[in-house]
From TrEMBL:
GO biological process: proteolysis
All residue ranges annotated as the Peptidase S1 domain in the record: 27-256
Classification via PROSITE patterns: TRYPSIN_DOM (PS50240), TRYPSIN_SER (PS00135)
PANTHER family referenced in this protein's UniProt entry, alphabetically: AT07769P-RELATED, PTHR24260
SMART domains xrefs: Tryp_SPc (SM00020)
Keywords: Disulfide bond, Signal
Gene Ontology terms for molecular function: serine-type endopeptidase activity
Signal peptide extent: 1-26
Name the UniProt record assigns to this protein: Peptidase S1 domain-containing protein
Length: 256
């Protein structure tokens, strides 16, 4: 059966378990953000095995962009846009190129474990109203689960399952972070404690194709990196899976 196993309980309840998943998440029915109101956002584009890969990221230092390892794994270089809102016509954006990435040493491209990477910019960027950094969790938050907190994800990814085009303007959605155990069932236990999950379809909104690497933000702090969702489509309501930044506090510290 392609991607779905039906388990019938004695009471007749059918439980759908998502066996497969796909990288590159985007925003379904997201709201267009106020231009430059999320100045930490980065748009990434690269070529991997002849395919154009579009991802999100976040500026965490004046010369470092945090993203998913799956966005740069196998790439020779990446193009980064900072200070962007409309990728096609925004005059405020800064376009940079980099061929230097640090991918987590234990990254598993098949299971999307340790899906975290840093793109090193060739020069420091000048911070302004359109370009700014975002903070990552401090050591004191390392044991927090963020369960039931409201998180925000933004990106330039696909806006629905059927339209092949990506959004040129930055869009955002708000999603509730769910407890770890609630996320392990849909993915047959493949989700690890180093990952964090948000609800699936919520108020008609979800994450979809096009924005792995985008930050999951809670109260102004980035707590996750968009990693993967179900390959059954964006509308099935499966949770979105993110790399949990508190699990990589010391890795990030070592990259400073």
């Amino acid at each position: 059966m392609n991607g779905v196993v039906k388990l019938c309980s004695p009471c007749g309840i059918v439980l759908l378990l998502m066996l497969h998943y796909k990288a590159a998440l985007g925003i379904i029915n997201g709201d267009e953000v106020v231009p430059h109101s999320l100045p930490y956002m980065a748009a990434l584009q690269t070529e991997i095995n002849g395919r154009t890969i579009r991802c999100g990221g976040s500026l965490i230092e004046v010369n470092k962009v945090l993203t998913a390892a799956s966005c740069v794994y196998g790439a020779s270089s990446v193009t980064i846009k900072l200070g962007a809102h409309n990728l096609e016509e925004d005059g405020a954006q800064v376009k940079l190129n980099s061929s230097v990435f640090t991918i987590h040493q234990d990254f598993d491209p098949d299971l999307h474990l340790h899906d975290i990477a840093i793109v090193h910019l060739e020069q420091n960027v000048t911070l302004n109203d359109s370009i700014s950094t975002i903070s990552t969790p401090p050591l004191g938050d390392i044991l927090l689960t963020f369960a039931d907190d409201l998180g925000m994800v933004a990106g330039w990814g696909k806006i629905n399952d059927t339209d092949p085009n990506y959004s040129n303007v930055l869009r955002k959605i708000e999603m509730t972070i769910i407890p770890f155990l609630a996320c392990t069932i849909p993915y047959l236990g493949k989700v690890q404690t180093s990952q964090i999950c948000t609800t699936g379809m919520q108020n008609g909104k979800n994450i979809c194709l096009g924005d792995s690497g985008s930050p999951l933000v809670v109260n102004g702090t980035q707590v996750g990196i968009a990693s993967y969702g179900s390959d059954l489509g964006c509308s099935v309501g499966a949770p979105g899976v993110f790399t949990r930044l508190t699990s990589y506090y010391f890795w990030l510290l070592g990259e400073e």
